């Protein structure tokens, strides 16, 4: 993973983060956020994965159903946010991402990105927010959702 600060203004920063073959996207983005002290922001990315696991949130069971994608795919769109979770004692940032992947026959598959192994690159633009974003446990969904009032 390589990262470069592109801009710093109005209390926020913009970074270019480039992942290389073999990097796991979610782990790398979490490491980037910790290393650069990014606790609030959003990101977009394009590139490719050798394989990925996406999730579909099952409302009835309140768990993500894992859907493995075991082939080379284009990352057509990867969007997400970085925030802090109230239930994390160390207040480390959390990364939440959704992805649309293109297969060799031009079909699109997508969902909540659980993991993705980069091949050959993933180009990510991270834009930091000047204010922390916090997640709070939501009893109805069983998920930690962003609460903009915190």
Span of the ends, CA to CA? 32 Å
CATH class type: Alpha Beta
Biggest beta-sheet profile: 9 strands, mixed
**How much helical structure, as a percent, in the residues?**
under 10%
- How large is the count of helical segments? 1
How much strand content do the residues show? over 45%
- Could you report the average pLDDT, rounded to the nearest whole number? 92
Characterization of the model:
The chain is mainly beta and 150 residues long. The chain has one domain: 60s Ribosomal Protein L30, Chain: A (2-Layer Sandwich). It is built from one helix and nine strands, in the order ββαβββββββ. Strands 1, 2, 3, 4, 5, 6, 7, 8 and 9 form a nine-stranded mixed sheet that branches. β5 (73-85) and β6 (93-102) form a beta hairpin. The longest helix is centred in the first third of the chain and has 11 residues, at 25-35. The chain is flat. The model has no long low-confidence stretch (mean pLDDT 92).
How do the strands and helices of this protein lay out in sequence?
Blueprint: E1 2-9, E2 12-20, H1 25-35, E3 41-58, E4 63-69, E5 73-85, E6 93-102, E7 108-128, E8 134-138, E9 143-146
Parallel strand pairs: 5-8
Antiparallel strand pairs: 1-2, 2-7, 3-4, 3-5, 3-7, 5-6, 6-7, 8-9
Which tags fit this structure?
150 residues, 60s Ribosomal Protein L30, Chain: A, 9-stranded mixed beta sheet
Summarize the structure in short.
The protein is built from one helix and nine strands, in the order E-E-H-E-E-E-E-E-E-E. By secondary structure, it is mainly β.
């Amino acid at each position: 993973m390589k990262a470069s600060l592109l801009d710093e203004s109005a209390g926020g920063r913009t970074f270019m983060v480039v992942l290389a073959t073999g990097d796991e996207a979610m782990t790398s983005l979490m490491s980037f956020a910790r290393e650069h002290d990014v606790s609030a922001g959003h990101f977009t990315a394009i590139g490719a994965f050798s394989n990925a696991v996406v999730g579909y949130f099952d409302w009835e069971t309140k768990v993500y159903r894992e859907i493995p994608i075991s082939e080379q795919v284009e990352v057509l769109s990867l969007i997400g946010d970085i925030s802090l979770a109230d239930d994390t004692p160390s207040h480390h940032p959390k990364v939440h991402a959704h992805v649309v992947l293109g297969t060799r026959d031009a079909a699109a598959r997508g969902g909540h990105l659980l993991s993705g192994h980069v091949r050959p690159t993933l180009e990510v633009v991270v834009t930091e927010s000047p204010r922390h974003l916090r997640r709070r446990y939501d009893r109805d969904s069983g998920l930690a959702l962003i609460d903009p009032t915190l």
